[in-house]
Design a protein that fits this description.
Blueprint: E1 11-16, H1 22-33, E2 36-39, H2 40-50, H3 53-63, H4 70-84, E3 91-94, H5 100-109, E4 115-120, H6 123-137, H7 144-163, E5 169-173, H8 178-194
Parallel strand pairs: 1-3, 1-4, 2-3, 4-5
Length: about 200
């Protein structure tokens, strides 16, 4: 297993509130740069489906409505990154870290983050987008009360994460058009991949 060298393989944390357009932008980044996209939610769901011993523990935690412990999430991320280390052109870590301690643990355990892209949008915009998505997708977690709670939790924790990395943080106005937002993303990523 090759260790990850962020100078050759950039590690990008993609942060933004629910509805900020992270998923859309990640798809565009993958298409242009060929980065490996890792979402902690996807990794957890895949692990639960695997039927491993760890899956049984995770299922029990989630059934109780508790958050999965940081060390388990970090282990899943590390395993996924190491498995792809030889072939990855870069890593997009989507929606992680969600709290300050996770960012510290990630950098101590895996590697330093190269850049943090934060898709910034007002709570009003995020709520409107999520309600629109709910109307189209039927996601149970997209009703107005749940959305307000998710946004409040996200913003409280996110501010602490962002404050830790003033030199690596790049804010993008996520209120703009998809193409205009991606144009800002490429200005951040082009110098990383050219290095």
């Amino acid at each position: 297993m090759a260790p990850i060298d962020p100078s050759k393989t950039p590690i990008v944390w993609v942060l933004g509130g629910p509805g900020s357009g992270k998923g859309t932008q990640c798809e565009k980044i993958i298409a242009k740069y060929g980065f490996t996209h890792l979402s902690t939610g996807d990794l957890l769901r895949a692990e639960v489906k695997s039927g491993s011993e760890r899956a049984k523990t995770l299922t029990a935690i989630m059934e109780r409505g508790e958050l999965v412990p940081n060390d388990i999430v970090l282990d899943l991320l590390k395993e996924a990154m190491l498995a792809k280390a030889g072939e990855a052109k870069g890593f997009l870590i989507d929606g992680y870290p969600r709290e300050k301690s996770q960012g510290i643990a990630f950098e101590q355990t895996i590697a330093p983050v190269s850049v943090i892209i934060y898709f910034e949008a007002s709570s009003e915009t995020l709520t409107k987008r999520l309600l629109g998505r709910a109307a189209n997708s039927g996601r149970a977690d997209d009703n107005e009360d749940t959305i307000k709670l998710r946004l409040k939790t996200f913003l409280e924790n996110n501010d602490q994460v962002l404050a830790q990395y003033p030199d690596k943080l790049k804010r993008i106005n996520a209120e703009d058009t998809v193409d205009s937002i991606f144009n800002q993303v490429t200005q951040i990523l082009d110098p990383l991949v050219a290095a």
